[in-house]
Amino acid sequence: MLFFLLSSAYSADPNIAEDFSPFFVLYKNGHVHRLFGDDFVVPSLDTKTNVESKDVVYSPQYNLSSRIYISKSDNFTKKKLPLLVYFHGGGFIIESAFSYGYHNFLNNLVSEAKIIAVSVQYRRGPENPVPCALQDSWTALKWIASHAKGKGPEDLLNSYADFQKVILSGDSSGATIAHRMGIIHGQKRLDGLNIDGISLFFPYFWGAKPIAGETTTPSKRAKVDKLWRLASPNTTGLDDPLINPVADPKLSSLGCKRVLVIVAEKDVLKARGIYYVEKLKKSGWKGKAENFEFKGEDHAFHLQRPYSKNTAKLRKRAVSFIHGR
75-81: long-range contacts (C-beta < 8 A, 24 or more apart)? Predict the structure, then answer.
C-alpha cells in the first residue's frame, strides 16, 4: 500500500508511539489500531464472477486460514487447474486475505484465468514481527503441498489443483513474501510441488543506498526505513535480504523457471522492481525474468481502482503469465 509515502499527522496524544494514519496508529503499550484494510468479507459464491470461496485453517497453532477460490463452472471439471498461491500486501502490518480489495481482485482473476487460488493469511507486525509472516507463509505452502498426492485435508485442492503448475504471487509486502518463498523452496524443495513461476506486483524491496532512478529525498527514504523497522524490529537494516533480495548471496537459488515483475511509473518502489530483475538475470539463476510497467499509475493501483482499464490489463497480463503465454 501507499502509507509509507504519506505525511503522518503525528498526534499530540502522549500514548501514541507512531502515527501512520490514515492506515494505522501504534501505541506505546504495543497496541496497533488499524484504520484501513481490517474489514472482513465472508467467503461466498460471487454472483458476478461465478467464483466460489471458502476459508480453511492451515495453522491450528495460530488459528490461521487460507481462502480458496474456484470458479463454479470449473468445480465439475475432471481437468486439473493451475494453482495460484497469493500473499496479500500491506507493509506486513495492515490488510488481510479477507479484506474487500483482495477478495474482489481474486474473484475476478480466478474467473478470467480459470484456475484455483489460495490466498494466505499470515500474522502481522508489529505485534508479530517479521519473520512471523514468512514463517506462516512457508507453513501454508507446506500445507498446500500436503495435497499433492491427493490425500490432503482439503478436497478442493485434492481434486482440482495441478501441483506441477503452481504460481506464487503477491503485491507489495506480499510480493516480498512470494519472492522469499521461492528462495526457500529453491533450497528445501517441497515434495510433489513444482513452482512454475512467480509474479510480483509492485514488490516492496528496498536498500540502504539509493539506486539509479530511486528517490534520494531523505524524508521519503526515512518513511520506508521506519515502516520496515516497525514491522521487523530485529532486522539487520535496509540491506537485510528479507527486504533487499539483491543483497542475498542465495538469490540464484530462486526455485522457479519464470518471474514477472509488474511496476508502476509513479511508485517510489519502481526502480527496485526493475533492479531486482536485472540482478536476478545476472545472478546465475537459470530462469527467465521480465518487467512490465504501467505508465501513469502508482503503487497497488489494482486495489484502489479495481474496475479501471489498467487493472483489467494487469489481470490480463497475470493470466497470460499463469498460462505461460
Answer: 75/160, 77/160, 80/160, 80/161, 80/162, 80/165, 81/114, 81/115, 81/116, 81/160, 81/161, 81/162
Active-site residue (options: 88, 179, 185, 299):
299
Cis bond upstream, residue 131 (ω within 30) = yes
> Residues 41, 35: contact at Cβ < 8 Å?
no
Q: What is the pLDDT of residues 153-202, one digit of tens each?
A: 999 999 999 999 999 999 999 999 999 999 999 999 999 999 999 999 99
How far is 81 from 100, CA to CA, in rounded Å? Answer: 25
- pLDDT for residue 79: 86
Cα–Cα distance measured from residue 166 to residue 178, given in angstroms and rounded to the nearest whole number: 12
179 tagged catalytic: no
Residues 6+ positions from 118 with CB-CB distance below 8 Å:
66, 67, 68, 69, 83, 84, 85, 86, 140, 144, 157
What is the pairing mode between strands 16-20 and 24-27? Answer: antiparallel
Closest CA to 228 of 237, 219, 241: 237
β-pair type (258-264, 288-294):
parallel
Please say if 267 is a catalytic residue. Answer: yes
Separation of alpha carbons 298 and 259, rounded Å: 21
What are 44-69's pLDDT values in tens digits? 999 999 999 999 999 999 999 999 99
* Residue among 59, 71, 119, 172 flagged as catalytic: 172
Q: Give the E-state strand segments of the chain in sequence order.
A: 16-20, 24-27, 32-34, 45-46, 51-59, 64-71, 81-87, 116-120, 161-171, 195-201, 258-264, 288-294
